[in-house]
Amino acid sequence: MESTQKKVIIVDDNASHLSIVRNILKSLYEVYPAPSVIKLFTIMGNFIPDLVLLDIDMPGMNGFEALKAMKDNPRYKDIPVVFLTAKDDDVSTEEGLNLGATDYITKPFSSPLLLRRVSNILLIEQQKRELHESNAALEELRNQSSP
What we know:
5 strands, globular, alpha/beta, 147 residues, Rossmann fold
């Protein structure tokens, strides 16, 4: 039987941060830790997650570059991405949001705040999908009833 839990990938090169975030989310979501952007793309090759929590400062490809790559790929461009980072400056926040991030959360964060924001983002994404499906069904009905 397939799980109905939402799938969240956490990307951070710090093992303790991966563990902390995983422990906060694991009772509500299927959580996949990724210690690098390379691992993120490997995991996404197997399934499309409902949300990606992405650190910025990482060796190799950083979070900004990862988000750009995701937005340039039709398979990944609609996945909501939240930056979860210690970069607590306006320039980084603005850059992340301008690149298409859904939200920007700075470390340290409170567990309730993280849970609420993840929950809200996943709910909004679900509602967007349902609205899109309803609009498509209405358009199909309209096309069927047109002479």
